[in-house]
Amino acid sequence: MSKINIAVIGCGKHFEDFHLPSFKRLKQHISISGIFDINLNRAKYISKKYKIKKIYKSISDLLKDNHVNTVDICSPPIFHFKQIVESIKFKKNIIVEKPFVLKESQINKIINLSKNTNLKIMCLQHSRFRLETEKFCKFLSKKKNKFGKLFFIEAVANYSNGIPKQINNSFTDIKIAGGGPLLDHGSHLLDLVLFFLNFDKYKIKSSFFFKNFFKKKNIVYNVEEIAIVNALFDKTILLKFETSYLSHKKKNNFFINFHFENGFLTWPTLEYRLNNIENSIKFKSKQKASDRQFLHFVDCVVNNKKPFIDLLETKKLVILIEKFYQKGIYINNYDKNNK
C-alpha cells in the first residue's frame, strides 16, 4: 500500500481529536500536504502544535495544489455540499466527515457530477469500521433464522451534558450545524440500522423535537435538545430512535437493540438472548475504527477499489434524516411559558 497526499478543509476539534491522531498513526500511508480553516488563527495553532508546514490561504489554493490527490472535508455540515462540488471539479478524491450533506437534492447533484469520474468519495462513518460491527453482521447472518422475525428496533444516543467539543457553536447553531443530535448521532446509529438490514421501504410515523427545556450557558443553542423519531420499515418493523446532547441520565447511552420473536441482540456490546438463554459475542479489538476507516480509503485510492460506503448508501441516510426533520413536530418550552 502506497501513500496518499491529503489536504484538510476545517481544523476544528473533530479534526484535531479524531482525524489528525489517525493520520499521525498512519503516517506511512497518509501524508498531510496542508490545511485550511476559515479561522486563520485556528489554522496557525494547529500548524504550530502538530508541525504541519503548509497553511492554504483559500480553498481554491488548496484545490489547485497538484500535489494533493485527496481532500478531507472536516468543516461544519452547512459547508459540505459546496466544498464537495468544488473538490470534484478539481478531480480530487474526497472523504467527508458525517453528516455528508443535508438534502437529497444535494447528494443527487454530487452523484451526477462524479458519475463519469474515477474519483473515490466516501462519507466517514467510523461505526461501520468497528470490529463490533463486523462481528454483529457475521453473527446475525449465521443466526438469523434462529432469532425469528424482527419486529422492533430501539436506537438510543443520549448523552448527559454531552455537547461535542466545538468552536464557534459548530454543533449547536443551526446556521452552521444544519441540525442537532438527530443529524449528528443519527448519522451513526441510523446508518447502522440501514446497513445491518438493508432497508429500502419505510414510512415516517412521527418526529418530535424538544427545544428550550434545558439551561445552557455561554453558547448559542438553537438546534433540538431531544429528538424522538419513529419509522415503520417493510410495514412490520418499528424503529424508535431517541437522541439528545443534554440528557439528565446518570450515564451516556449509545446502543441499538434489535428485538426478534425468539430473542434480542444489542450493538455494540454484542449481548444477546436467544430462546431464554443469555450470552454475548466475544471479541478483542486491536485497531481503532478510525484507523481502519482511513486505511480502507487509502487502499481504495491507491488500488482503484470501490469504497465500502458508496454514495447510493449515503443517499439513503441523507433522505431518511431529511424526512424526519420535514415531518417534525416541535415542542417548545417557550410556547408554554408565553401562554
Helix and strand topology:
Layout: E1 4-9, H1 13-25, E2 30-36, H2 40-50, H3 59-64, E3 70-73, H4 80-89, E4 93-97, H5 104-114, E5 121-124, H6 131-147, E6 150-158, H7 174-177, H8 181-197, E7 202-211, E8 226-233, E9 237-244, E10 253-260, E11 263-267, E12 271-274, E13 277-280, H9 289-303, H10 311-326, E14 329-332, H11 333-337
Helix pairs in contact: 4-5, 5-10, 8-10
What this model shows, in words?
The mean pLDDT is 94. 37% of the residues lie in helices and 25% in strands. It folds into two domains: 144 residues, NAD(P)-binding Rossmann-like Domain (Rossmann fold), CATH 3.40.50; 178 residues, 2-Layer Sandwich (Dihydrodipicolinate Reductase, domain 2). Helix 4 packs parallel to helix 5, helix 5 runs antiparallel to helix 10 and helix 8 packs across helix 10. The protein has eleven helices and 14 strands. The radius of gyration is 21 Å and the shape is globular. The strands form two sheets. The chain has a nine-stranded mixed β-sheet. A five-stranded parallel β-sheet has the order 2-1-3-4-5. The N and C termini lie far apart (64 Å). The chain has 339 residues and is α/β, with parallel strands linked by helices.
